[in-house]
Fold this sequence. Notes:
The chain is an alpha/beta fold and 259 residues long. Helices cover 21% and strands 27% of the residues. Strands 1, 2, 3, 4, 10, 11, 12 and 13 form an 8-stranded mixed beta sheet that branches.
Amino acid sequence: MDKVVRAPADAVADIPDGASLAVGGFGLSGVPNVLIAALYAQGATALSVVSNNCGVDGGGLGVLLAAGRIARVTGSYIGTNKEFARQYLTGELEVELVPQGTLAERLRAGGCGIPAFYTPAGVGTQVAEGGLPLRYGPDGEVAVASPPKEVREFGGRDHVLEHGITTDFALVRAWKGDRHGNLVLRRAARNFNPLAAMAGRITVAEVEHLLEPGELDPDAVHVPGVFVQRVVPLTPTQAEDKGIEKRTVRRSDDGEGVR
């Protein structure tokens, strides 16, 4: 029952080339940066990543992306990651763009053993009709496009069939976790972490505060330990290292600089 793995390197040592990963986080909030760094050092390549976005230039999954370790991304947002956009447009990276709510439900469905579901999101667009560029060729033309999906009518409204997602591994970050793998997420860092944790066949959680069994209020648990196979406690320095994706400033009222 004790799922604690002290060294991040040991927790990701068996992730092979070509593995699929569900990774928690949104922007730089709740991103398992310590596990990503350990995976970078481990050297696994040709990874298929499922995450809301692929980090930022030099941060989060962007570290693996810049090193050419990621072959495919399923996500909903490219954002300001210039390297992500460059690799996608030059045909180096295959990208499946998914509506954000659909991506969340696909992960949850996979974690619950639900193979597929119908949703109205995407009906009447290339999401349902096919033709979204998955991969570009070196000439800038679409080399691989998404196929059309099944559409059925329920209650007089069309719905598109989407498949649940499961992955070989999942990397997530939690505020608190106990030795049995029960996790508590904090504020915005909750985002995709519970869903990614559910979708992974082997889920590795880095936790800011490691607690003993029984110290967590069962009603406060966001991810039950049944979904988590490995727990990596962070050092205080690692726990405090949280990036800010965008800083917004304004000029002070006295005109003497910015705040």
